[in-house]
Here is the input.
Amino acid sequence: MPNSLPTDSVGSLQSVGVVTPQIIHFSEPLLLACGRTLSDYQIVYETYGTLNANKSNAVLICHALSGHHHAAGFHSMGDKRPGWWDAYIGPGKPIDTNKFFVVSLNNLGGCHGSTGPASINPETNKPWGPDFPKLRVRDWVASQALLADALGIEVWAAVIGGSLGGMQAMRWALQYPERVRHCVVIASALKLSAQNIAFNETARQAIVSDPNFCDGRYLEQNTLPREGLAVARMIGHITYLSDFAMGEKFGRDLRKGSFDIGSDAPVEFQIESYLRHQGDSFANSFDANSYLLITKALDYFDLARDYNDDPVAAFKLTKAKFLVISFSTDWRFAPERSHEIVNALIGANKAVSYAEIESQFGHDAFLLPDERYQQVFTRYLNGVSQSCV
Amino acid sequence: MPNSLPTDSVGSLQSVGVVTPQIIHFSEPLLLACGRTLSDYQIVYETYGTLNANKSNAVLICHALSGHHHAAGFHSMGDKRPGWWDAYIGPGKPIDTNKFFVVSLNNLGGCHGSTGPASINPETNKPWGPDFPKLRVRDWVASQALLADALGIEVWAAVIGGSLGGMQAMRWALQYPERVRHCVVIASALKLSAQNIAFNETARQAIVSDPNFCDGRYLEQNTLPREGLAVARMIGHITYLSDFAMGEKFGRDLRKGSFDIGSDAPVEFQIESYLRHQGDSFANSFDANSYLLITKALDYFDLARDYNDDPVAAFKLTKAKFLVISFSTDWRFAPERSHEIVNALIGANKAVSYAEIESQFGHDAFLLPDERYQQVFTRYLNGVSQSCV
Here is the structure.
């Protein structure tokens, strides 16, 4: 997930301030879509705002490929970087913590504190690695429902997510129709296209062909497939940005070298070192098996598959109201993909609001401050909060 | 370069039939843009058709990133796969070998018979590897001019190229204005965008981070960076195809596995195995150092750089007439990039014809049979041949 802009400092009135991640253990086995069960797992989460007496103001944030539980606020007074969606979560912000009780978790299979491939497999006392069960979006939703149970939240005022998070939000509305009043689906899709899958598969190949991947048992071998993960991230990162935004930010500017005739000095473009830096940082902070698992869940997601490939039939089973948002230059999940969601919702006779935001920033736009996006988001959630009685 | 469709068999009237590559040695040192010289190098080329008495009907084909000299015909009677542009070169085809004498070469730095990084460095008696001089598009054009000299061709009736080949064609018109009567620039650009460079750099990182790359000295180590080169090719290949074409050809079709609930069988999409196959075949037939060298030449190309970034000023120095062609779904070199070429040519008061071909096939379209593309191409080159007196 790209860096969000640090819009507020820790002491700002618009910030949720210092937050402390919480960990919840589950010892009841979770039956997964693949047929396997996961027993004795944990989920790390954060909450912002206060649950009201009726427990009717809870909002769930579902994260995208490289996201996690730390969506807003800071982890200490000296922390310079807020959570990844801090621009949209806080007092007076679209997801207004004066009104809502916001829950944000790291999904199972992730690598930021929830049980995942880098966790110890209790049966072997070694890291799960490649033996960790393959997860689907519906498994995340099921585990999020258990977290809701544990927090005493019967019905979410809204389930909200961008990208892969939007897929979870849609799955929530389908899997637990009575538990979702509003569903906010941002820069998402009913399913990946062949091109989307192609990019994911190329990224996975970069990882598994790194000799340090060791068939996924790199932690046991005391190594990390850093190079492969860095290339995977570079591939992904290109698809998060628009051609235009990259051109505006980097163009053909040089970091070093010269095009002078007779000069043998190697030329390096700014975009090259930027991308390599993105790849390297990611490779030091993300687990490769988690990356494989999550991209596979992305590829497999297909909301209408169980309904004869008819998304109208799928959405007919939902009871939520929907807000769908897309961004004009997003080519990873283009506005057409959101149109498909909206058209299916209309076909299913569901309440849906749709906004296509003009933005230069490609898929990343869903994380970045933008006036119209903020207005649309705020207005919709104001309506949601007024019905939290 | 993607496979062209085998439109004709070796004995077909529309085929140039069996062709034999020829090799020419140059012992006069070639001064390169980087300041180094290349002495004692060879170029492999093929010719189709017959040079007329006035030597006025010669056409040069410039190849793209993964192309080579074998553009048309077959290498033996049993050869099932024709040259990469066989759909467009042959008797009665757009580049009509009944009318033109067609020259097609493998560029210096390549790996199909011309001197390149996999050749032996005469000073060390070892493969050049990473020590091979960095080449620019202008160096290729200079070496192509020496080949023209050797073949007795003073003036090309046309210099023709797609993609990186179109960049060579434009550079020809600028570097040797008296030697190019017509310049055909297909699916090309005045320079790469930041996004283009980003894809190339990610591909290069996949190669150089393969431990078998051995800092480019893999041949001396008796190994090959196959995995890295395969990932590089997968990245490139995605950008050659349109999202739509990939969707039409592969969609979300499965090659194996199942999405059934309770099934742990791994799912593989058709697009995944297709891409991996493309990567693997390429890795067995292309030299990694050549790939690095050629993608760098692509990145560095910027026709207007020496002219205050003003392509109008650059094109003012040319004397050729131009045909520019783009394809509607090409997102690697989108129609807008061709518009920039056309607008600069108009600004420079040059004769230019432009066609934007409706096609589903993305950048690859320049290699594939298409009726309107063939018609535009044929009509233009008919005019060229009529002036070959």
About this structure: Chain B touches chain A through 53 residues (CB under 8 Å). The radius of gyration of chain B is 21 Å. Confidence is low (pLDDT under 50) at residues 1-6 of chain B. Chain B is about 30% helix and 15% strand.
